[in-house]
Amino acid sequence: MSEPAIKSLDKLTSFSQEIDALELLRKRRRSRVKKYPSVSVLVSTVRPDDLTNLLQQLCAQSLPSFELQLGLHTIKVNASHKKLIRALEKRKVSVNIYSFGQEKNLGTILSSLAQSSTGEFIAKMDDDDYYGPEHLRDLLDTALDTGADVVGRAMNYVYLEPLQLTVRRFSPHGIQAVELWSDWVCGGTILAKRTVAEAAHWFGDGKTAVDRFLLSGVTNNGGKIWRTFGAGYIYRRTFTLHTYATNYSKYLNGANEHVVGRWQHPVFGSFHA
User: Fold this and answer.
1) Where are the domains of the chain?
2) 8-268 belongs to which CATH class?
3) pLDDT tens readout for residues 155-192
4) Would the pTM of this model clear 0.90, i.e. be above it?
């Protein structure tokens, strides 16, 4: 287990400094990996357009192979989805598709997907967020290096869709702690050891707070959670029937940088219309 290259970001840490630290740590961690364990990606979706975007991001992942457990919540795959699924299968990604009716809750769907998965790790990805091409591999690198039961990212980058603005944010105290043990990681970035997640009863069976259910269950069982860099992941906030309506001021108040539109850099990958 190695000492982290950086433990916190503050308002004086530039974006380029953050990326330099991330790349240094990534290089060191990957030099020690001999073989990646198997991982199952869990996706529950009710939005056809967002599913298209997420499948494109999965096609771009640098991790050589993984299993995709895709839960369709009242929707069906369309021609665009089928084309992207074929592209995933060509690169030896196992894609398993399950359909769920309106009566099923998010927790129930995710727990069902996890139970039927085969990976040594499970990784939750949200269809309405944005993931860079190194996302899954970074999380596995971190899990192998730290020995953590759960790994996830900090929420450093938030896309406020109605404002067409991406903010690089910190806590109210001007600091975002990364590369440390914690009891919280961003829910759309959870990577967990299968045995640990199962012992925590997966994601429960509720409509909301499914991420907190798993994280609390892990810590209550004595498990350890590691939070790594937020760069490589953009958390998206909008006002729709299916996403959490929130006050944008809490994101704006903690920001020291912002860009119009989505943050453009290779660490976040390419965005599709």
Assistant:
1) 8-268
2) alpha beta
3) 999 999 888 999 998 776 666 789 999 999 999 999 99
4) yes
